[in-house]
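Quick bug: Succinate dehydrogenase cytochrome b556 subunit output formatted oddly.
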Amino acid sequence: MADLSHKSARPLSPHLQIYRPMLTMMMSIVHRITGAALYVGTLLVAWWLIAAAVGPDYFALVDGFFGSFFGRLILFGYTWALIHHMLGGLRHFIWDFGHGFGPEARELLAKATIAGSVILTILVWIVGYIAR
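Here's what came back:
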């Protein structure tokens, strides 16, 4: 049997208390969160489509929910999550080709994902309100 009283000199596995949070690490976490949020948002889109198929009364109820301040806030968040997740996927696509691995390029891509998702979300909503 192994002697458990003798302490090994093996290094400990790294954990969050050792790692300094970096922008690319946070972007990875946000990418996973937006992916999970898209599941919920897709269920809401399916609810809206099912309501349209059920009939005008139920559709009016669901459309009224999405037309409320809270509903629009959810739709705005869904739009941002969709765009942010897409841009994160494009960042990974660039990495798949072996580009953008340098420290400056990683930071630039991460900042571009953040800025692009915010700007594109606002643009989509502006265009949506103008087209309305």
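Actually, after a second look the formatting is fine. The chain has four helices and no strands. Closing.
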